[in-house]
Specification:
With about 325 residues, the chain is an alpha+beta fold. It is built from 13 helices and 6 strands.
Length: about 325
Amino acid sequence: MHVDSNLVTHDTHTRTADSQNPPHSSTNNIHTTPMQEQPQQQQQQQHQQQHAHGVLIAKPCLITAASETKVQAEQEKEKEPLCLENATPDAVPLHLREMLSQFGHRKLSAAELLMLLIYLVALESGFVENQSYLEKRSLLKPVPAVGCFHLFNVRLLSHLPTHYTREFEDTAFRMLLRTLLDSKSAQEPPLMTALQSSLIAIVLGDLMVVTLSPVAPSKERGFSTCLSIGRFVLNVQLEPIYQRFCKLDELSLQLRQNLFQPMRAQQLLALDLHPHPSLLGLPSEVYDEIFKHLNKNQLNILANVNWKLCNYKKQFKDRRPH
């Protein structure tokens, strides 16, 4: 049988090539797997590093944003007026907003809104509604005779419901006030009546007549003033409601000068507490030294100032050598 030499030669070369280039074993496959996974691990490490860098970059941004927000809040707080006389159409004291928030969506008349403003000026002048005083007197800060405005007291009391009576279809409002003093004076029961006063507001057309009088049995005089409702509370529906208020500095000044400061001074003088320097409360020796330089006519003028100076003049006349 004849065999083709070309076929034999081809088969021999094929087997020789196969023996020189054996197929990949399982061991070779194990060694190639890490080489294939290494790029993936590098990608994961790079992704984690990028994520970590992203967090590091984001934190300063968050801190910066928080600090900016805090600074803005502090700046807005500094711009916020502390009392009613410094209020503007865009910025009002916090205690005014707190008091108005108690009424929710209840519709308030212009006269009742003005009554609330009057009470806020009373709070800023060292007065408080009597029932609120009884509820929170243990938390109130002492108010010295030489001062009247205490921000802590004003903001604390503005959170409480405002107690007042409405009469004759909201044409008359009545409220019992109590004057705040220092801690020692406030704890004395006999002073409760002497430090109380009755606030009454009566609506007469477009005007509101406000009186502040001592309660019985005091025989001291009262004080009154007349307010134009439309001058301080606009007759329009605006939101927020405090945008209806205007000329609050004028309202505060008028109420302080005509009602609250005279009443507070009168009550303090009755208790021998002097809110400001005066001729009252001096030692008798000082009065003798002053009076001896005055003639008879001047002494009579001085005695007509008030009943205390009149008594001092009589005592000096008795002690004066003839």
